[in-house]
Amino acid sequence: MNASPSKNAQTGGQTAALPLAAAALARAKVKTLACLGGISLERGVAMDEVQGYVKDPTNIVWVDIQDAGQEEFSLLLEEFGFHPLALEDVAKGQQRPKVDEYKGHLFVVMYSAGRHAETGEFRAQEVGLFIGRNYLVSLHKGPLAALDDAMNRWARGGQMLNEGIGFLAYTVVDAVIDTYFPVIDGIEDELEAAEMQMFDPTQHFGVERLVRYKRTLVALRRVLSPLREVFNVFLRRDHSFFSGNTLAYFQNVYDHVLRLLDALDTEREMLAAALDAHLAVASNRVNATMKALTVITIVLAFAGSVFGAWGMNFSHVPLAEHPWGFWGVWLGTMLLMGLALFYSWTRRWL
Hints:
- By secondary structure, the chain is an alpha+beta fold.
- The protein has a domain at 284-346: Magnesium transport protein CorA, transmembrane region (Methane Monooxygenase Hydroxylase, Chain G, domain 1), CATH 1.20.58.
- It contains 12 helices and 7 strands.
- Strands 2-1-3-7-6-5-4 form a 7-stranded mixed sheet, sandwiched between helices.
- β1 (29-36) and β2 form a beta hairpin.
- α6 runs antiparallel to α7.
- It is rod-shaped and about 120 Å long.
- It starts with a helix and ends with a helix.
């Protein structure tokens, strides 16, 4: 195939007549970016020309496919020779983060982190990466801002473009890992605010918030913890795909993963402490309520006993015949009730 930049430039990144297999990609959103000899970049490489670029070992090609279908998977199997099991994992989705080593390429599963704009619920978006000696193919469902950012960063790579596929792979995984920091920092801020709110008696605090945070932290750990195994593969010095200069960059991303896991452990401890504090606060408020109800019950029982005695059918009730007898008893009872309530208030029983 003709892989010269001039042909692609003259057609604006499209060819006049695409083969049937490449034309099937019209239903998917495809972005391509090629680095030619570590010097120039070319966007919009047509799919029927990608293999021509890949055959030149000095070129680096990135193909990003959004919402791939069966036709796209068949094309990838035919053009790149990806393992059918790896393509099946991408098609099914919901895979555990991992790296599988096949002949001629690596298959990596990662998740990008985000939060729902309205509900704030955690969302993990799966992305599959096929990494060869001089190409990278990314597949995902729906738009993924992290990959758009990675593509822009790689295009501005400068001299690092000479580091080959290692620098491209680093740029992609680093952009994906960076999406976790705003999520985890936001959860930490919300936990601190929740701790303050639960001690404010004027605000209602629902324990369901803490349960939601717990569920989010479990989901985050489920997609982050396996990445340690992924980067152990990337950091192997006997790996033929990545140059020695890029190992420091992968080590940096690996440190980011460890930082995120440490932050998750810290927030899990904060959450456990918040749950214990919530139970303690709720128990103290129940005790205070029971104490106040006990005082009120005793005071009302005293008043009930006095007025109940006066209401009994006796022939001679003390002060019953006195003109001010009723008002004297009533006033005395109210005064004693007030004194009892005032004394309880000074002792903080109410």
